[in-house]
Amino acid sequence: MSAPSPKRAYTHDSGGMNKDEYRAHLHDLQIELVAMQRHLIAGNHRLLILLEGRDAAGKGGLIKRITEHLSPRETRVIALGKPNARDRGSWYFQRYVPHLPSAGECVIFNRSWYNRAGVEPVMGFCTREERDSFLDQVVPFERMQVEAGTTLLKYYLDISREEQAARLEARQSDPLKTWKTSPIDAVALQKYDAYTVARDHMLQCSDHEHGRWGIVRADNKHEARINVIRDILRSVPHPGPIREDQASDRDIVFRFRPNMLTNGSLAR
Predict the structure, then answer these.
(1) How many other CB atoms are found less than 10 A from the CB of residue 17?
(2) Does pTM top 0.90 for this prediction?
């Protein structure tokens, strides 16, 4: 996963491939995803994908396209709700451990333990000390999983302030999207800068050898979906890898580097 080209700072983007091109690319990639899963099942491999990002960044739509044709028995999507009293009295990671993949499984978290580095501190749901404790523990927690044989992929879907505003507004007017609304939506834009600070701190503290962050420029949903799937296929060894001309666009999906906090690569 290469770094983005220096000339490509983050910009609001409404262009990209047309719908026919998108559907054709998606169809081919979903066939590859099925082949990848067959390999995972046959080899008893474990795949864990974490999707993070601002509200309305497109995590749900991406998950739908990844899992659409995968085996429902070996694929699980985890989107945990508000922690209960028992969760709040337990080790922070404890509520996530039962959902980790077993042999042959692919598990996708729609938001994960990284809530403690993003939503929770911004919204006042945890203390600074609790956040710092989480960031001290998350690297060894992920390292243990990888050393035990789990393939771990982490993606942060990054969207501009303008695109987030447009998507949140669409949720309010589209009856098919009203289930996506939450009380947090009302303050997402007000706290855009606070979320930016939290994102930067999270990426800097939790990008490590066993759990590198992939940054996804997600203003264009179609481009983001296609390129994340391409990156997944390139990151998970399996027979019949995608062609060289189907490599992910390094200006859309790229590995986090600390200098990106200041060079315009991330939305602000």
Answers:
(1) 14
(2) yes
